[in-house]
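Recap from last week: sequence in, structure out.
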Amino acid sequence: MPPRKPGKSATLEAAGPKIGSPVPKGVVDTATGEVGVPVQRDYDPSEEFGALRKQLETLQKQVSDAAQTIKGGARAAARQTEATAKLYPVSTMIAVAAAVGAIAFAIGGSRSRPPRSRYDRALDEMRDLYGRVRDRI
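Predicted structure tokens:
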């Protein structure tokens, strides 16, 4: 690596834009090839906060409307289920029992492991023996 040439290093400047200050937009004039910064309006955070508050209020209203719609749909489904159960009590009980049985069967089937055969146990013992012999060598 070649030696460095003695010279002045760049100094850090304390003056300049601070963090969070607005950044001016640059403009390139294609007709004349000039680059410049146009005059920009003053930065007013209260305007931005006002716009954000309006957006937040709009979102809150949309969420509350959606919640009311969901509640209304749930109430209607509950009423319809109740009416169906009153009109068809036997078939409703059979359907509920079938649904509960299907759920219980799915949960029970996912928790149980298939029984291991003698062949699998013997194979596992042989693997363990082979592993112990290999560790000794």
